[in-house]
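Sequence design from tokenized structure. All designs in this work follow the same two-part layout: the structure record, then the generated sequence. An example of the structure record is given first.
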């Protein structure tokens, strides 16, 4: 019997921990612990307390611990109204949850991955790389400085049996949208399934600082592919409730924990929600979520962390898109300007997280270049209609499909890598997921003082199969790019400002990767999940010279 259920039977009036604890933002002296509870209460961690806030009948708190020592390891408990609820009494399957603070040194380990289908009771998606990683740490493996979950933390449009059963009980099998989430309550249940069902992953998230950013399946496949896509979705009677529930739940379950205590204190919505006390603040969160969708330039989901001498930039390449009949951009002007401001030298390493790979296999890049031009009218009105249908059917909506944005970012990173914005770092790397296979790409031209790389690790658990796997494997084969570059040229697309090639991969396993930094040296390690309890190394590659 689950320990929480047993306690509930023995002590029916005891406040319960519904989800968490999740250890989120951690720096040298502060840490944030996120929880969801079954009723309003006071949450305590290491003497720090926070009162829950309520949204759509769900209760949350972020406890901010201060005064920690740099380089320390501090076991912690979670108390709700004075009662210890974590670790769960009698559950000794995993070590105590610990807050590890960095010491400001030069050594850094960042584990990352994307695209995780969970739970998966029938095992159709293969072994979970995150579960295997958790078991390694529980058995004494070296913990990372942080874990980066860089997209598709939940699948709101490809549902497993458990969430489907919940939806059928709640609103019946024939209500719209069929086979997809409808609102905040269903998102909340899906997060609970994704982060609580597997006890190893639940423990992992309680003891490793975690940062997140969404991708399309956190909302819906091909989210914000184009202006036409947005108009199609807005015409559906259920879409408004869906996007409001998706962005509102993302703000609570993922975004708030990315922020430092000072950044949360400056968030006006967070202040309003906390000031609401035990009153349900759903109206405030819903209004914010709707504004974030309709006016993406008014909300910034992107954020930056300086980890010792390494700068980590996490860019929102989904909600921040500019999509109008006249213009399309991967990032609206304000977010693109912000990204440019963060791309600076005088750091040992620059890591840019984008859920979507910046550098795709070159045949795919040229195909998306061509499709954007054709969809924009390069081959006439009929060609534009065909291009839009193809764009949505084949998921042609990465950075390559936003050619102007691709060129802007190329100028930003090459300026840093050449040493034009302070001393050049030892490496510049994009960290991405989304495509359901893993690889390393190296920029070969123009020549820069710092090497520029694209590191992809995807999926944690959702392998690519069938025709899409075959097509992507072919696209990674040397010598196939010229055909698609010819198509792009016929549509009037100039050559990309960068040249690159794949040097490792592709691998189609469920995988997790780790960026390992020691001073000016950096390397990446990919590991595949062989079983739920074991990882196997696939490759190690240097990112610095």
């Amino acid at each position: 019997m689950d320990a929480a259920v047993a306690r509930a039977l023995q002590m029916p009036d005891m406040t319960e921990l519904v989800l968490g604890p999740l250890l989120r933002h951690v720096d040298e002296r502060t840490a944030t612990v996120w929880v969801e509870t079954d009723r309003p209460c006071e949450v305590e961690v290491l003497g720090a307390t926070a009162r829950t806030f309520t949204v759509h009948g769900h209760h949350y708190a972020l406890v901010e611990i201060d005064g920690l020592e740099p380089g320390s390891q501090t076991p912690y408990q979670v108390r709700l109204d004075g009662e210890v609820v974590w670790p769960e009494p009698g559950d000794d399957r995993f070590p105590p949850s610990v807050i590890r603070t960095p010491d400001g040194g030069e050594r850094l380990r960042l584990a990352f991955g994307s695209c995780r289908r969970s739970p998966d009771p029938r095992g159709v998606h293969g072994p979970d790389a995150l579960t295997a990683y958790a078991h390694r740490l529980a058995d004494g493996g070296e913990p990372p400085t942080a874990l980066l979950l860089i997209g598709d933390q939940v699948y709101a449009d490809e549902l497993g049996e458990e969430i489907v059963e919940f939806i059928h009980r709640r609103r019946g099998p024939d209500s719209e949208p069929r086979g997809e989430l409808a609102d905040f309550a269903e998102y909340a249940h899906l997060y609970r399934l994704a982060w609580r069902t597997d006890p190893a992953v639940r423990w992992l998230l309680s003891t490793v600082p975690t940062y997140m950013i969404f991708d399309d399946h956190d909302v819906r496949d091909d989210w914000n592919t184009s202006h036409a896509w947005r108009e199609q979705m807005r015409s559906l009677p259920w879409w408004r409730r869906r996007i409001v529930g998706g962005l509102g739940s993302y703000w609570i379950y993922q975004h708030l924990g990315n922020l430092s205590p000072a950044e949360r204190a400056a968030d006006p919505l967070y202040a309003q929600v906390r000031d609401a006390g035990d009153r349900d603040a759903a109206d405030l969160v819903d209004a914010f979520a709707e504004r974030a969708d309709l006016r993406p330039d008014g909300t910034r989901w992107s954020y930056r962390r300086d980890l010792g001498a390494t700068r980590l930039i996490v860019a929102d390449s989904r909600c921040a898109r500019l999509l109008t009949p006249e213009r399309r951009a991967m990032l609206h002007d304000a977010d693109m300007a912000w990204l440019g401001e963060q791309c600076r030298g005088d750091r040992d390493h620059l890591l840019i997280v984008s859920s979507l790979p910046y550098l795709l296999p070159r045949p795919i890049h040229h195909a998306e270049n061509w499709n954007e031009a054709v969809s924009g009218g390069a081959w006439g009105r009929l060609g534009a209609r065909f291009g839009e249908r193809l764009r949505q059917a084949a998921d042609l909506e990465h950075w390559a499909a936003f050619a102007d944005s691709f060129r802007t970012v190329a100028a930003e990173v090459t300026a840093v890598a050449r040493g034009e914005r302070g001393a050049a770092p030892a490496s510049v790397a994009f960290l991405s997921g989304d495509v359901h296979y893993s690889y390393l790409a190296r920029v070969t031209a123009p020549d820069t003082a710092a090497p520029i790389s694209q590191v992809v690790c995807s999926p944690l658990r959702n392998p690519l199969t069938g025709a899409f796997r075959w097509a992507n494997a072919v696209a990674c084969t040397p010598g196939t790019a010229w055909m698609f570059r010819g198509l792009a040229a016929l549509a009037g697309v100039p050559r990309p400002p960068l040249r690159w090639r794949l040097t490792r991969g592709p691998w189609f396993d469920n995988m997790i990767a780790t960026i390992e930094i020691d001073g000016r040296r950096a390397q990446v390690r990919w590991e595949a999940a062989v079983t739920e309890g074991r990882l196997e190394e696939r490759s190690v590659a240097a990112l610095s010279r």
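The chain has a mean pLDDT of 96. We note this feature because it recurs in several other targets discussed in the main text.
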